[in-house]
């Protein structure tokens, strides 16, 4: 078992080995991790030699100083509240954690709000300009959960976790556990981060279109827009048209087949943000629920999915 | 045929197409290139429509303004001086062009000196801290060549060129030509850039060792050196030893088998530069010719190769 922790974070992993003597030592994490990562041999020998932990392979010895084990005091893991399928959680986090800001002075924009009730897990993140919400089923729900967890940590944990994951939580800590590993972190201020705050009752136009075809057209026509910024989705009877022109560069227009319902409200978007909003729907059709004025456009998959994703994208004033 | 040029550089490529009317137009390069790159369809239609060149695929039209053809005056290509195998040139450039500085106020350190005589092509580059020299055979040599060419351009040209390449040159321009394409560039000030300026007559120690095994050991032991900087190659009777220690991190030592001839001169190197010097010899044994004091270490492949590479690496004062 390898375990490490700092003030906010604790991680433990099991790994198999042949032990000749039981024991526990504390060594500096970074040189141990780097040395092990760079060794070519499959097996290493770990030997406590005086005040050193020696990592030995043929022809080489790396010796790390033993630290005072009292220095490490791992806080207790919070109780399990429910279980979730690891693959579904990873799918949901790819979009939701990716929508959180990478760097923001306000933790609410770098975190993912995790809410669990007896049936569903809901993940919400926003960088103020767009918001992603994913809903997926939970198992064995015992208690509700509502915490804000750093997005980067969740992404990293989901990469290592496999199979069924335990969700753990109390008022001040959140954890994920799986066969052979666990990660526990302090939670951030739980949030007012909620899609309920985004008005979505004025939808008058619905467009269903291939996410990949629309993204490809946005990329191409965007070359002909000033600073590659704002493009208008011109909604027609059974198509969507993108057009742009730019002095010295020329003009571009593309017309794409689409299923259109309701009105012909034609929103404008930052090309970059529209592309990011379309990315999670790649490989299928996306349904855009469009509201007039400066109200959010709501993107959902046209097909039912086990991870139900809702993406809120703010329009821009047209150029 | 697609051709483009600016003040220093001219490029032309043939590409096959079905033409309904012959003609030649000049359009802005960047939007044309980007639009074509991002189109999904294999075929596009190019149509001159009034003052526009329209690029058409189903459902889309991109129109580029026609420019005054007088604006483009391509300088004549310099005469061919000899021929070289494209694959050998690409192999040589991988190391030599990579050794030139990416960015330096002095062009001599961002260029590759190309010297051809009746038998060989010699490529030389240096970023002041190390120098790489590659020698490869030429064919049909008619005239000698000695020019300094921007390293980045050579790398890019070698990526597109195939088969036998023509080498072109006169006092002020250098060119590469191949079936279906050519690139011509103004040459930089030809250089005093020469391995002859590096003293290499005091070699007293020769070491032959697996380049990959040495590189892997340098990476691992480097973790235990201050700022990952300087490592000493301790040359023994039939081995090389690397050792390092660092407070708080611990100690590392590795011993590698090696063929050693001559003395036991044990040079010290910047770990990063030693790794870069070993990289081109990956997959085989490298021979290090070591000189005492602050004289260059000369690296060559232990096996004969069609591209004969010599790499000069400056040692550091040991820590």
TrEMBL record, chains A, B:
Molecular function GO labels: 3'-5' exonuclease activity; DNA binding; DNA-directed DNA polymerase activity
Which cellular component terms (GO) are annotated to the entry? cytoplasm; DNA polymerase III complex
The highest taxon in the source lineage is Bacteria
Q: Which UniProt keywords apply?
A: Cytoplasm, DNA replication, DNA-binding, DNA-directed DNA polymerase, Nucleotidyltransferase, Transferase
- Is Cytoplasm found in the keyword set? yes
Domain DNA polymerase III beta sliding clamp N-terminal: residue ranges? 3-70
Domain (DNA polymerase III beta sliding clamp C-terminal) ranges: 198-316
Keyword Cytoplasm assigned to the entry: answer is: yes
InterPro entries given in the database record: DNA_clamp_sf, DNA_polIII_beta, DNA_polIII_beta_C, DNA_polIII_beta_cen, DNA_polIII_beta_N
- Give the transmembrane region(s): none
Which compartment or compartments is the protein found in?
A: Cytoplasm
Q: Domain DNA polymerase III beta sliding clamp central, which positions?
A: 84-163
The record's listing under Pfam families reads:
DNA_pol3_beta, DNA_pol3_beta_2, DNA_pol3_beta_3
GO biological process entries: DNA strand elongation involved in DNA replication
Family label: Belongs to the beta sliding clamp family.
**Protein name per the record:** DNA polymerase-3 subunit beta
What organism does the UniProt record list as the source? Amycolatopsis saalfeldensis
